[in-house]
Every structure is written in C-alpha cells, then in structure tokens.
Amino acid sequence: MKKKIVYFFGAILLLFVVTNPGETSFRNYLDEQEFKDEGRKVNYVVCSIYSADFITANEGYIRQRYFAILGRFYKLE
User: Fold this and answer.
1) Could you tell me the pTM of the whole model?
2) Which of 10, 76, 2 is nearest to 46 (CA)?
3) In whole angstroms, what is the distance from residue 69 CA to residue 62 CA?
4) Tens digit of each residue's pLDDT (9 = 90 or more) over 36-55
5) Domain range for 32
6) How many domains does the chain have?
7) Is 77 helix (H, G, I), strand (E, B) or coil?
8) Read out DSSP for 54-68?
9) Are 65 and 51 within 8 A, CB to CB?
C-alpha cells in the first residue's frame, strides 16, 4: 500500500516537472504583443515565474509577471 502511494505522488510530481513551461512556450504565449524584455525570473522546477516589459503608447514600459504551471500561464496582479 505504501508503495502505491509513493508511486502516485511520484507520478504527480513528474507531471508537474514535465509540464513546467519553458521560455519558448512563454514567447508563444505572448504571441504578437510588443515587449522589450521577457524571460524566466525564477524556476522552482515544478512551476516558474516569468516577467515581460510591455511597450506602452507613450514609449514607456509596463512590467507584467506571470505564474507558469502545468503548461499554463497566469497573470499576477
């Protein structure tokens, strides 16, 4: 019984590690938006934090941060 529990949680952990999005996925997620700088800021192996500096209409920049897990990106406010 203990072995099955260990295998179950090991499989869940492996799922999180394998589906942690990379920088190419982040660039694809940003698609055609205009940005100055982007990239992974922190990698926790099972999830990551990304940021991007977007160009505004008055030539300024707005920094947005994103939480990435299981192949998805979530904007942090």
Assistant:
1) 0.83
2) 10
3) 23
4) 778 889 999 999 999 998 88
5) 2-76
6) 1
7) coil
8) EEPTTS-EEEEEEEE
9) yes
